[in-house]
Amino acid sequence: MTTIDTARLAGMFAAIADAMSADRDRLCALDGVIGDADHGIAMELGFSASRDAVAALDTGSADPTTLLNTAAKSFLNAVGASSGPLYATAFMRGAAAVKGKTTLDDTDAVALFQAMAKGIQDRGKAEPGEKTMIDAWAPAAQAAGEALASGKGLAGSLEAAAQAAKAGAEATKAMIATKGRASRLGERSLGHMDPGAASAVTVIEAMRVALTG
Ligand code: ADP
Ligand code: MG
Ligand code: MG
């Protein structure tokens, strides 16, 4: 059983920010093909801002909900692109899912993860198959829930999530975009991975390592 405290969550944001910086150019290139080439910059800016904002909190007294709401607000302020409100909503919903907890156990952490995916879906109104980040987040959330229910701990659940996200992002190559900027391309979006699904894989993998490694 893992116990995740506020300091561990702050470390998670630092790890995601590092991962986004490392992945920035690939994500911009993917977005350059079917969008406006700013996705890597948006994600790096957003997670750097969240990292800095949560690092400034007193992790001794701030609870996970305060930390996640702080991350949400700073992400939203830093990012002008569509991914801004989507990830901000993810963290706000995650914050609500762990309200009242001072530390998170495996069940809490999976609930947080699933609330993030649901938040993105509620905010963007995308369904699976529309070639968005939801094609990575939705199967990842489902896989995490199934793994936990089958007796796997957090590490196994987030491993299942990371694998499902990867498969989901890969599958976006065969999809025609019907949401977001890429939908303007119609069939010309075929054959290319959705940048938001690609970055979701990186986010989820960084979360997995930071929370269970
Ligand atoms: P923008 O298109 O405003 O430049 P970004 O480049 O940061 O924003 O993000 C693009 C990604 O956002 C897409 O690849 C897609 O995954 C995701 N996206 C766009 N619209 C939606 C939506 N309605 N629901 C979920 N994800 C979306
Ligand atoms: Mg873009
Ligand atoms: Mg843009």
From TrEMBL:
Keyword hit for Kinase: yes
What NCBIfam families does the database record attribute to this sequence? dha_L_ycgS
Gene3D superfamilies to which the protein is assigned, alphabetical: 1.25.40.340
- Which PROSITE patterns does this chain map to? DHAL
SUPFAM superfamilies recorded for this chain? DhaL-like (SSF101473)
Q: Which organism is it from?
A: Mesorhizobium calcicola
> Which keywords accompany this UniProt record?
Kinase, Transferase
EC class name: transferase
EC number(s)?
Answer: 2.7.1.121
MF terms per GO, please? phosphoenolpyruvate-glycerone phosphotransferase activity
Q: What PANTHER family does the annotation carry?
A: TRIOKINASE/FMN CYCLASE (PTHR28629), TRIOKINASE_FMN CYCLASE (PTHR28629:SF4)
What is the name of this protein? Dihydroxyacetone kinase subunit DhaL
